[in-house]
Fold Veg family protein.
Amino acid sequence: MASKHTLDDIKRGLEKHLGKDIVVRANKGRKKIVTREGVLECTYPSVFVVAYSDGDDRITRVSYSYADVLTSNVQLTLVRNEMKYA
């Protein structure tokens, strides 16, 4: 079982990036992997929340546990603020 110290390290690391764009790659089981881009909205003692925009002024919020990050069921990548040309 993971130590609390390790989960606290993950939480502290995420708190530094609140409000920033991230890419979430989540393993949903049975070879289903979902990759979405969103904003790290907030952290709580056991979970963190990512807000996804659907483009129609709708925002979907999904929570993930720090244990999911520890066990690699959820992988997070910080998005660099690069200019995108159309």
